[in-house]
């Protein structure tokens, strides 16, 4: 089933009353969660996983898709009015969006963010439908060493590019891979890192791990470091719609942001932070008013928000066609597939066409729902920030603990969640990114499987890891991506040190 034909079939699946209802629920919940600082789509989907066990897979994933996009929309609201991003992809939006709000142009900033997200999400979703079958045609020809190369790329790019320090990212990844090893070795049957605990023979449940790191870790962090019991946000005032000048200045950044965000979602490029920063930098270079950036330039909101949503759609391509997540939220969706006994990969479009195309079609439907919900009702979403922090985070903690207990009906899982939550707090406290840990815990066992397959086929020959053209190209590109920035920085420093004595001598001569 090719792209257009599959998309039409997806609309037949998504346009049922039941699935439209779940899409609406997902978009509303996603927007609500996106508005709340520190609570993102990954946590929301993880919290709702235990509640969807009795649902049809198509309905559950249509709801998750609504949450995924809704959180992207909601995050821009918090960034603009609170200068505190609801999720990581909205960090750059806070720079100019909040300045626009302070200047009485908060409604225009929210409008360009919503419309840009709609346009980018729609274009990117159409590209997902177009490119997914093409990538599947390539993926079915890949061997275990090729999949291992892709997973290594995901490991290193996510670790090196997410967070403030590549070393901390690698440390987080290592912890995640160790957690992924807990349980019974699938090949030898020996237990690993269980410390004699029977409950750990099946490993650490990924849902519990994600909820612990995001929810419990966030709750402990807020309790330890909060300075006030309420969120201080700005009201929406001034011009209530975009002017003709705003439209003229926004439409090109919307398209350029889409062009940047989608391909960086398809490749393992470390989440939505990088494309949004690239979009902001590009708009600043191309702008006729570069002096406005940092002071309320509408292009600084339009471009990054488009890049954010296009990146979110692009991340579904490697997830659905290769089974490789490139962000924390994509990793949680992968876990959701596994909970239903479905493994994303090249065969998914053939074995589960109704589910996949229904999911892709629901992204277009949810995108339209979000535009309708966000433009007139943004004032309603902002009122959620009036909920006192103690009540809000106590509710999140209670919901997380109940979810952990419902997974297996075990108090051990609740205690394990508290321990992992403390680790999540320490990671946030000392600046260690959580996304590499999640990716390491999920992809680690899969990478080990592909490594063993490669070595078994080649009778232990390590050269087999790079003997295919595809894996050689992947490792070469990975080396360029990781080494090139350091080389460029070194060259620039050398040039700066060489020109400094010349400048000094010129000044002294004058």
Automatic annotation (TrEMBL):
Domain DUF112 stretches: 20-438
UniProt keyword terms in alphabetical order: Membrane, Transmembrane, Transmembrane helix
Pfam families noted in UniProt: TctA
Transmembrane segments: 20-49, 61-82, 107-135, 147-164, 170-188, 200-224, 315-337, 357-379, 391-423, 430-449, 469-488
InterPro entries registered for this protein in UniProt: DUF112_TM
Protein name: Putative tricarboxylic transport membrane protein
Transmembrane among keywords: yes
């Amino acid at each position: 089933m090719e792209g257009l034909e599959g998309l039409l079939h997806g609309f037949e699946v998504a346009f049922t009353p039941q699935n439209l209802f779940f899409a609406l629920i997902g978009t509303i919940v996603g927007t609500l969660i996106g508005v709340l600082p520190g609570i993102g789509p990954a946590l929301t989907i993880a919290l709702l996983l235990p509640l969807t066990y009795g649902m049809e897979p198509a309905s559950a994933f249509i709801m998750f898709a609504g949450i995924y996009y809704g959180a992207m929309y909601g995050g821009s609201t918090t960034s603009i009015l609170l200068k505190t991003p609801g999720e990581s992809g909205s960090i750059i939006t806070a720079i100019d969006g909040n300045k626009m709000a302070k200047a009485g142009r908060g409604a225009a900033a929210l409008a360009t963010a919503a419309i840009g997200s709609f346009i980018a999400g729609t274009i990117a979703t159409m590209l997902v439908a177009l490119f997914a079958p093409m990538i599947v045609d390539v993926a079915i020809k890949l061997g275990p060493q090729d999949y291992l190369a892709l997973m290594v790329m995901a490991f290193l790019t996510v670790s090196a590019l997410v967070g403030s320090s590549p070393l901390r990212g690698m440390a987080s990844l290592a912890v995640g891979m160790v957690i992924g090893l807990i349980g019974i070795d699938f090949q030898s049957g020996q237990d690993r890192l269980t410390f004699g605990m029977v409950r750990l023979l099946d490993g650490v449940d990924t849902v519990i791990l994600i909820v612990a790191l995001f929810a419990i870790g966030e709750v402990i962090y807020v309790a330890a470091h909060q300075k006030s019991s309420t969120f201080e946000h700005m009201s929406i005032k001034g011009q209530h719609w975009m002017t003709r000048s705003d439209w003229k200045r926004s439409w090109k950044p919307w398209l350029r942001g889409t062009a940047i965000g989608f391909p960086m979602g398809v490749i393992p490029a470390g989440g939505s932070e990088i494309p949004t920063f690239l979009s902001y930098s590009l708009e600043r270079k191309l702008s006729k008013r570069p002096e406005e950036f940092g002071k309320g330039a509408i292009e600084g909101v339009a471009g990054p928000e488009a890049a954010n949503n296009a990146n979110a759609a692009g991340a579904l391509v490697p997830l659905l066609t290769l089974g490789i997540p490139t962000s924390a939220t994509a990793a949680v969706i992968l876990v959701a597939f596994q909970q239903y006994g479905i493994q994303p990969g090249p065969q998914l479009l053939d074995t589960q066409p109704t589910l996949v195309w229904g999911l892709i079609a629901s992204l277009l439907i949810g995108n339209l729902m979000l535009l309708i919900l966000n433009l007139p009702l943004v004032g309603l979403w902002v009122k959620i920030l009036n909920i006192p922090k103690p009540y809000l985070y106590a509710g999140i903690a209670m919901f997380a603990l109940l979810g952990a207990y419902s997974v297996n009906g075990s108090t051990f899982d609740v205690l394990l969640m508290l321990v992992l939550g403390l680790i999540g707090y320490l990671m946030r406290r000392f600046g260690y990114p959580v996304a590499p840990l999640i990716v390491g815990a999920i992809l680690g066992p899969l990478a080990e499987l592909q490594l063993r397959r490669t070595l078994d086929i080649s009778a232990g020959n390590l050269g087999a890891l790079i003997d295919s053209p595809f894996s050689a190209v992947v490792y070469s590109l990975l080396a360029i991506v990781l080494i090139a920035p350091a080389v460029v920085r070194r060259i620039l420093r050398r040039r700066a040190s060489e020109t400094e004595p010349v400048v000094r001598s010129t000044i002294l001569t004058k």
